[in-house]
Amino acid sequence: MFGYLVADRSNLTEEQFMQYRSAYCGICSCLRKNGLVRGTLCLSYDLVFLWMVLSSMYEPQRSLSEERCPVHPFKGTGMLTDAFSGYAADIGIILAYYKALDDWKDERDPLKLSASKLLRKPFEKASASLPRQSRAVMEAIDRISMLEESGSEDIDALCNAFGAMLGEIFVYDPDDHWAGYLRRFGEAVGRYLYLLDAVLDLQGDIKHERYNPLSQTEKNTPEWQNSALDLFLGDISEIYGFLPIVEYSPILDSIIYSGMTERYRRSLEDKKTGE
């Protein structure tokens, strides 16, 4: 997964943090019920972000239970679930499967091939349940791979391809009144995530002579990168403001207005310290 859609713990009350962690454990429980003994293979807090957006939008009936699991075998842990927990779990499986296949193609790492084989049956089940989303992920990965393999410096095309994938993932029901807003929100988040990943990887990619769409262009400047990231964050914030989100708004606010930028802020501080 992406690893950037995480809450800023310092902005959460203890109750909010427990909700956040219980949602994570709830999705993990759904993954294990799908046949993944190690649900963490597909699990990340990015899926909790997806779950919280959809759960806040549609407010389905929720269940909070205390369960034991392989990670918490003795004391047990709280598990917060609703109709969207399974959806987030299926999205995690689809993303993890295509990522493993793509990594195997690029790196020829036997571990990646093993991971794709382990995920094959759960993926087939999730993909059959969510064909539109699965197709969107496949098409986005193919589009991005094509651009990256050609050495493209068209960062807009790359960001838009990743955005299109998340746009479809955030649309649970394409016939719903809010589908258009959720698609735009997912697209904005996806564009930001792709650009942020390129920015954070840039110096390492240059050092090791790896592809990065920012490395050989006028975009390889802190000024351009700061401006572009701020613009994409502004898009996210603007669309987020239209969504009728109440239930988990403090946690989502913490992710959007602080957590999403934390890695970038740390990288800037590390550069200053190095200088």
Concise summary:
The chain has 275 residues and is mainly alpha-helical. The chain has nine helices and two strands.
Please, could you describe this protein's structure?
The protein has helices at 14-33, 45-58, 83-107, 110-129, 131-149, 155-170, 179-207, 222-240, 249-274; strands at 63-67, 77-81. The chain is mainly alpha-helical and 275 residues long. It has a domain at 130-243. Strands 1-2 form a two-stranded antiparallel sheet. Helix 3 packs antiparallel against helix 4 (110-129), helix 3 packs parallel to helix 5 and helix 4 packs antiparallel against helix 5. The model has no long low-confidence stretch (mean pLDDT 89).
Number of helices: 9
The topology string of helices and strands comes to HHEEHHHHHHH
Tell me, briefly, the overall form. Answer: globular
Which class of secondary structure composition applies to the elements? Answer: mainly alpha
List the helices and strands and how they pair.
Elements: H1 14-33, H2 45-58, E1 63-67, E2 77-81, H3 83-107, H4 110-129, H5 131-149, H6 155-170, H7 179-207, H8 222-240, H9 249-274
Antiparallel strand pairs: 1-2
Observed structural traits:
single chain, 275 residues, mainly alpha, two-stranded antiparallel sheet, 9 helices, 2 strands
